[in-house]
Design brief:
222 residues; mainly alpha; MetI-like fold; 10 helices; 82% helix; elongated; AA_ABC_Transporter_Permease
Length: 222
C-alpha cells in the first residue's frame, strides 16, 4: 500500500536522490556530447566514398565503439572501478558513477550521430565539395546544420538511456534514485518508496522525451 504521510516525510531523501541522478546524467551527457559528437562525425567522414575515406581509421574506431557497446553496463561499471578510483579517488557516489556512465554513453551517442549524418543527401555533400569547400567547412556548414534535428533526437535518446543506466549504477553505490529504490524499496520492502521512484522516473523520462522532441521539431526546417 502507498503511505502518503510517510511519502511526505521521505520527500527530502527523494529530492536528494533525484539531484544525484541529475548530476550523474548531466556529467555523463556533457562528456558524451563533447567526445561522442566528433567521434560520430569521424566515423561518418572516414567511410567509403566520403572526403576523408580511411578504412583503417574507420575500422579501428568502429571496433572501439562496438567493443564498449557489447559489454552490459553493470559489468562495465564494475570493470571500470580501477579507472574510476584513479580519476575521482573513490568508487562510490554520483561523481564516481559518472565515469562509467560517460564511457557507456560516448559510443552510444557516436553511433547516433553517425546515423544522423547518413540521412543527409549525399548530393548536398558532393555539391559542396564541387565548389571547393574544405573538409572543415563541409562539417561545420553542411553536415552538422543539416543533421541538427536528428542529433537533438539522438541526445534525447542518450539522456533516456542514461536515466536507466544511472538507476543501475545506484544498485552498487552510485547514489541517486536507483540507490534509494534498492535500499528502501527492495531491502526494506518499502512499497511507498518503490512506487514513488518508479513514478518519478516515468515522469522524468516523459518530460525529457517531450522537450527533446519539441526542440528537434523546432530545428527541423524540412
Amino acid at each position: 500500500m502507498f503511505d502518503f504521510p510517510y511519502f511526505i516525510t521521505m520527500l527530502p531523501d527523494i529530492w536528494e536522490a533525484f539531484k544525484e541522478t541529475v548530476v550523474m546524467i548531466g556529467i555523463a551527457l556533457s562528456i558524451s556530447i563533447i567526445i561522442g559528437l566528433p567521434f560520430g562525425v569521424l566515423l561518418f567522414v572516414t567511410d567509403k566514398g566520403l572526403f576523408w575515406e580511411n578504412r583503417f581509421v574507420k575500422n579501428i574506431f568502429g571496433f572501439a565503439v562496438n567493443l564498449v557497446r557489447s559489454i552490459p553496463f553493470i559489468i562495465l561499471l564494475v570493470a571500470l572501478f580501477p579507472l574510476t578510483k584513479i580519476l575521482v579517488g573513490t568508487t562510490i557516489g554520483p561523481i564516481a558513477a559518472s565515469v562509467s556512465l560517460s564511457v557507456a554513453a560516448i559510443p552510444y551517442f557516436a553511433r547516433l550521430v553517425e546515423s544522423s549524418l547518413r540521412d543527409i543527401d549525399k548530393g548536398v555533400i558532393e555539391a559542396t565539395i564541387a565548389v571547393g569547400a574544405t573538409p572543415w567547412m563541409i562539417i561545420k556548414d553542411v553536415l552538422l546544420p543539416e543533421a541538427k534535428s536528428t542529433i537533438i533526437r539522438g541526445i534525447t535518446l542518450t539522456v533516456i538511456s542514461l536515466v536507466a543506466y544511472s538507476a543501475m549504477a545506484g544498485t552498487i553505490g552510485g547514489g541517486g534514485i536507483g540507490d534509494l529504490a534498492i535500499r528502501f524499496g527492495y531491502y526494506r520492502y518499502d512499497n511507498t518508496i518503490m512506487i514513488s521512484t518508479v513514478v518519478i522516473l516515468i515522469i522524468f523520462v516523459q518530460l525529457i522525451q517531450l522537450i527533446g522532441e519539441q526542440f528537434a521539431k523546432s530545428l527541423d526546417k524540412r
